Amino acid sequence: MASDKQASVASPDIFIVGVMKGGTTVLHDYICTHPRIRAGSQKEIHYFSLFYHEGPEWYANHFKDVKPKYRTIDASPTYFDATNTAQLPRLIRGFTEDPRVILITRDPIQRAISQFVHLRKVAKIECLMDMDIDDFFAQDLESVFRQNTGPAYFLNQVLTFSLYQHKFATYRQQFEPHQLLVLDNNELRNQPRKTMEKVFSFLNEDYYHDEQFGEEKYSNGSAISQISKASFDRLAGLLYPDYEIFCQQAGIEFKQAMYDVKRSAA
Question: How many CA atoms are closer than 13 Å to the CA of 31, on its beta-carbon side?
C-alpha cells in the first residue's frame, strides 16, 4: 500500500507495463489527454523494475507536482519485458488498492525489427552500428544463449522481449480480470477512437476525444521488408508459436505478418 507521504501527493494507479517498441509512448500520451489524468515527471520511471531500491519517497517524488485530485500514470515497458518471476507484477499489485494495468503488444517480428533499428539509430550501440540486419538475426543460437559477444547479447534481449506468453501468464495470476487490459498495437493505430473508448472505459473514465488520436508518431521503422525471407522465416519459427498461445490467452486475434516478396535490395 502507498505510504502516508505518498498519499499526500498524487500516486499512480494506472500502469502501462509494456512492451518496448509496442506503442507504449503513444498510448501514454493519448491517456494523458484526459482531463482527470496526469503524467509524472517522465513517461518511463522504471521504479518496480530498475529503481525499487531507491524507495517509495523517490517514486513519489516523480509525482510531487501533480495535485492529489488527479489520477496519475506510469508507463514503463520494463515492467513486462523484465518479468521472469511474479515479483514485478506482485509489486505493482501491492502498491495501490485497485490498480489498472494495460499491456500493449505488437506483432513480435515487427517489434524485434523496431528494437534493432532503435539500438542502432537511437541507442547507437557500437557493436551494431555496422552490422547488417540479416547478419544480426542470423546469429548462432548457441552464441545468443550464452551471450558471449555483444551482438549475441542484444539479440538475446530482442528475442526475449518478443516472447510474451510466459510473462503474460505471470500477470494474469496476479491481477483480477477487471484490472488487466491487453491491446494490440494495430488496434491503436487503425482504430484509435474505438480503442481509446475501450481504454477509458477500462479506467472507469468518460471518453475524452483529442485531435491527436490517430496521428502517426514515434516510428523508428519496423517494416518486414527490411529483412530477408530467410530472416523472416527464422523469426517466424522462433516467435510465432509463442505469440499464438499468448493471443489465445489474451483474447486478441492471432495474425501473422506476411512477407513482401517484392522486397527491394535496399
Answer: 32
**Residue 94 identity:** G
Report which secondary-structure segment, H or E, holds 259.
none
Calpha distance 191→172 (Å, rounded): 26
Task: Report the run of H or E that residue 81 belongs to, with start and end.
Answer: helix 78-81
In the chain, how many domains are there? 2
pLDDT in tens, 93-126: 999 999 999 999 999 999 999 999 999 999 999 9
DSSP labels, 132-196: -HHHHHTS-HHHHHHT-SHHHHHHHHHHHHT--HHHHHHHHHHS-GGGEEEEEHHHHHH-HHHHH
Distance of CA 92 to the CA centre of its chain: 15
Given 176, 202, 228, which residue is the final one in a domain? 202
Beta strand extents in the chain (DSSP E only): 14-18, 37-39, 71-75, 100-105, 180-184
157 and 175 assigned to the same domain? no
> What pLDDT, in 10s, does the model give residues 41-99?
999 999 999 999 999 999 999 999 999 999 999 999 999 999 999 999 999 999 999 99
Report the number of secondary-structure helices (H) and strands (E) in the chain: 14, 5
Task: Give the domain extent around 128.
Answer: 108-162+220-245
Helix, strand or coil for residue 104? strand
Strand partners, 182: 103
Measured CA to CA, the distance from residue 257 to residue 266 in angstroms comes to: 20
How far is 5 from 60, CA to CA, in rounded Å? 8
